[in-house]
Amino acid sequence: MKEFAGKIGRSTISLIKHTGSMWRIFIEALYWIFIAPFRGHPCKMKYVVAQMNLIGIGSVPIVALVNFFFGITLAMLTSYQLKQVGSQELMAGLVGVSFTRELGPFLAAIVVASRVGAAITAEIGTMAVSEEIDALETMALKPIRFLVAPRLIALLIMLPCLTVVANVVGMMGGYIIGRFNLHIDSSFYIKLTFDYLVFKDIWTGLIKSVAFAVMIALIGCYQGLTVRGGAAGVGISTTQSVVQSIIFIIIIDCLFNAWFYFI
């Protein structure tokens, strides 16, 4: 019993410590993004653009592919059920609302966390074990400014854009089933989709994507900055980054859904 209680206590203390460190990194990154530019110390745009290209442009194909086939799958499943009550045309609105409110931001975040979060941790972790971050600090250069802030900016810009891509492509997958399997007229399918969509459905998904972007950036950068143990440590931190990002994406998504459900 004592060992169990001790393990719980150590885990709690470790969680509080890691949460505090991540919060400090977040506050410092916000300083370099929103305050430092007005004091003559802006983030280098070339770093931001490079990260936007890696995070956004590089993720478009896989995000589009995943959401397109998920849209097809969702359309087939829902049309099968709606067929029982003779309301197959309602599938158009169901797919549209499902992607804008939930599946678009969620699937885009999962793809980015798996692809980009791991890359961020591996890149920064490699710099940490090769003492490049120590070299930056020796030259009085802030690692948060050059390593964390550009990645956070890029994710805040590109993940909502990827969410829009996911929404559109996912609804296209549903359209394929509606048009060629259910034989719903194209204009009627599009009209049904927009009849059921409201502006709240769109902005709730985009708000989620911003929260997901912050979490992916913080976890990826924190795991990279705290790597210990050489190359093996980089591998362990990369795995932890992906797992933790996915877990927190699910938790945040659940909390947002509960919030939006009651407003």
Describe the overall structure.
There is one protein chain. The chain has 263 residues and is mostly helical. It has one domain. The protein is built from nine helices and no strands. It has helices at 2-35, 45-55, 60-82, 91-129, 132-138, 143-180, 186-196, 199-225, 230-261. Helix 4 crosses helix 7 (186-196). The longest helix is centred in the middle third of the chain and has 39 residues, at 91-129. The model has no long low-confidence stretch (mean pLDDT 87).
Core attributes:
263 residues; mainly alpha
Question: What share of the residues does DSSP label as strand, in percent?
Answer: under 5%
Q: What number is the mean pLDDT?
A: 87
Q: Regions with pLDDT < 50 over 5+ consecutive residues?
A: none
Q: How many individual helices?
A: 9
What can be said about the biggest beta sheet?
none
- Rg calc: 21 Å
Helix content: over 70%
Q: How many DSSP E strands?
A: 0
Shape: elongated
Question: What's the SSE blueprint?
Answer:
Blueprint: H1 2-35, H2 45-55, H3 60-82, H4 91-129, H5 132-138, H6 143-180, H7 186-196, H8 199-225, H9 230-261
Helix pairs in contact: 1-6, 2-6, 3-4, 3-6, 4-6, 4-7, 4-8, 4-9, 6-8, 8-9
Quick overview:
This protein has 263 residues and is an all-alpha fold. The protein is built from 9 helices and no strands. Helix 2 runs parallel beside helix 6 (143-180), helix 3 (60-82) runs parallel beside helix 6 and helix 4 runs antiparallel to helix 6.
